[in-house]
Design goal:
265 residues; alpha/beta; Rossmann fold; 2 domains; six-stranded mixed beta sheet; 32% helix; disordered N terminus
Length: 265
């Protein structure tokens, strides 16, 4: 995992600040190609800021981010948009926009003044809607959708962008259990069938352990530990990162570690 050739993204010495508050402090993180990397940690530890930095939505105080060994600051905005897609935590769009119009926005990085909408754009949009199961609702206004339907439409927009790297910030936030599983199974299928490199922020530690190939614990703006979920799901480490006691068992269905949090006394 330390071999540059095996990493799609390398974050090196990244420091990010809002005003005078340092959010990420000289953070280093390799993100392996073709795997699912899940960022986990307490609120305010810098997970979302890290995703936004990878997509170059915030300029760092210092450090660099490499995409396939190339510094992302050397890429134009649309060139970067053709290689890294990001779904932020609370995306917004006009409620009277229909699903197909929303998904078509994902093709923006592929558009140019002298390059009109093409059959390839239509194909990418159709493929994204089919892959997320929103084809039948293409004419529905997004304001009429349920939470699960809307989240699938947003993911379809990111898929239409047709990038090798997909970053999703809390994609299952506010979804019920069934829709959480539907969403994460979709993400896993994109990784398995299309070889997408996925970077996820998840608050649910058990879902993180189930779906991650590479689990990353972020605490106080730094990487506390990263690696296989079987190695990271330890009571002592969870107590340190999340400030809570935990009992670790094995998920009887998936064979992955599960965390049962509790308070002593």
């Amino acid at each position: 995992m330390d071999d540059l050739a095996a990493n799609r993204i390398e974050v090196k010495g990244l420091t990010m600040a809002y005003g005078g508050d340092v959010v990420l402090d000289a953070l280093n993180l390799p993100i392996p190609a073709g795997r699912i990397t899940v960022l986990a940690g307490p609120n305010g530890c810098g997970k979302s800021t890290l995703l936004r930095a990878i997509r170059r939505l915030h300029a760092p105080q210092s450090g660099q981010i490499l995409l396939d060994t190339e510094d992302i600051t050397r890429l134009g905005s649309k060139a970067l948009g053709r290689r890294i897609g990001l779904l932020p935590q609370s995306p917004s769009a006009p409620l009277d926009m229909n699903v197909e119009e929303l998904v078509r926005l994902g093709r923006y990085p592929h558009q140019a003044m002298l390059q009109p909408w093409s059959p390839q754009d239509d194909e990418a949009v159709s493929r994204a809607m089919a892959g997320t199961g929103v084809e039948a609702m293409r004419r529905r206004r997004i304001g009429s959708l349920s939470g699960g339907q809307l989240q699938r439409a947003w993911i379809a927009m990111v898929l239409a962008q047709d990038t090798d790297v997909i970053c999703l910030d809390e994609p299952v936030n506010h979804l019920d259990m069934a829709h959480q599983l539907d969403c994460l199974e979709l993400v896993a299928r994109l990784n398995r069938d299309e070889g997408k490199t996925i970077v996820l922020v998840l608050h649910d530690l058990n879902l993180a352990a189930r779906y991650a190939d590479n689990l990353v614990f972020v605490a106080n703006g730094r990487i506390r530990e990263a690696g296989n979920p079987e190695l990271l799901m330890r009571a002592d480490l969870i107590a340190e990162v999340f400030n809570t006691d935990a009992h670790i068992i094995t998920d009887p269905i998936h064979g992955r570690p599960m965390c049962i949090p509790f308070r002593k006394g």
